[in-house]
Amino acid sequence: MKNTIIIVTLLLAAHCQGQGYRQTIQKRMDSLVEAKAIPGVIIGVYEQGRKEYITAGYPIPDAKQVFDSTMQLEIGSITKTFTSYILSAILRENMIADTDGIGKYLPDSVSRNKAVASIQFIQLMNHTSGLPRLATNMGNPKSFLQPYADYDQNKLFSYLSKAAPDTHRKVNYSNLGLTLAGVLAERISGKSYESLLKNYITGPWGLEHTGMTVNKSLPSSIGYFNGTPAEYWNMNGLGGAGEIKSTARDILAYLEQMLAHAHEAFIQNLITPTASIDERLKVAKGWHVLETKDQPPIYWHNGGTYGFSTFCGFDKSNNKAVFVAINAFAKNALADQAGISILRALKNKKLNE
């Protein structure tokens, strides 16, 4: 947390003194690498048609290979924004209301559990389903670095058939809920998540290096779990909550498309808050919304795997977006604060002003 405060302080100081943001950010990221607080970082900034990348450290430290925008990495729970887009599109095409119960789209063994059957689609996407963060029957005794690899649909449906969601259904962040959202998208459409991802997002938006599996033709950043190289997660066909692999260039292109379509009814519906955590932090369909007095809303999500800590966000009022990826576990405080601070600092300025 101390490091995040320093980042915010430096950015605000640069704003007051009229210094270049890129120079300030670069200096701070370099200092974090030199202090061995992080192995490496890549920050992508989009502003009104222009893209720029800031890097520090190494994605492959032993080879001293530097980050670039085409290097593969895990985006973690940013995947949830993709899943919510896909499920919302499928519901619209099939004329299914997002307030409908999910029961009739699930196996009989699950639909007989009325507490689960009555959950609405929208409640999966805005984390008000009452489902816990993770299913209690999840875990991989063979490898703690692959916590999802031993979990399949049979185990998921077995859990849901007996699950007792919290009936108060306030916001409770649930990986399980978005996993189920991805499964429902598959069951309603009759297509795999991978094909839905390609049909709805990566194909139309030109995200050539974004998918559920490791692309062996691309260089891949090493991610670190407490200093040890971590495996990329295999989520065994249940990856709607966090399995996407991508590049900084693709995620910045994704955010650019969100900005380009932000005033269209479908995207507006996707990013309009439908639940509240507190006065400032709201939840939409897969997106978090930060609402601060006298500031434009920031639409964002972060992600964490055992190898990466990521953040993406955009400010549609000022047509700006930021992606941050640190190749280490549990560095989300740094990634979040850097991303949000850059968006705030760039509200009325360009990166190098």
What does this entry look like structurally?
The protein is an alpha+beta fold. It has 2 domains: 2-77 and 215-229 and 243-345, 3-Layer(aba) Sandwich (Beta-lactamase), CATH 3.40.710.10; 80-202, Beta-lactamase (3-Layer(aba) Sandwich). The protein contains 12 helices and 12 strands. The strands form 3 sheets. Strands 2-1-12-11-10-9-8-7 form an 8-stranded antiparallel β-sheet, sandwiched between helices. Strands 3-6 form a two-stranded antiparallel sheet. Strands 4-5 form a two-stranded antiparallel sheet. Helix 1 (2-17) packs antiparallel against helix 2. Mean pLDDT is 92; it is low at 1-18.
Strand arrangement across the biggest beta sheet: 2-1-12-11-10-9-8-7
Shape: globular
- Helicity level, as a percent range? 25-40%
CATH-defined architecture of the largest domain = 3-Layer(aba) Sandwich
| Regions with little confidence, pLDDT below 50 for 5+ residues | 1-18
Q: Kindly report the CATH topology of the largest domain.
A: Beta-lactamase
Query: What share of residues are in beta strands?
Result: 15-25%
Q: What is the first-to-last residue Cα distance? A: 28 Å
Please provide the ordered H/E string of secondary-structure elements.
Answer: HHEEEHHHHHHHEEEHHEEEEEEH
Oligomer state of the chains in this structure: single chain
Number of domains: 2
The number of distinct helices, counting runs of at least 4 residues, comes to: 12
Extended strand count = 12
Main sheet specs: 8 strands, antiparallel
Determine the structural class based on helices, strands and strand pairing.
Answer: alpha+beta
The averaged pLDDT comes out at 92
CATH homology-level superfamily of the largest domain: DD-peptidase/beta-lactamase superfamily
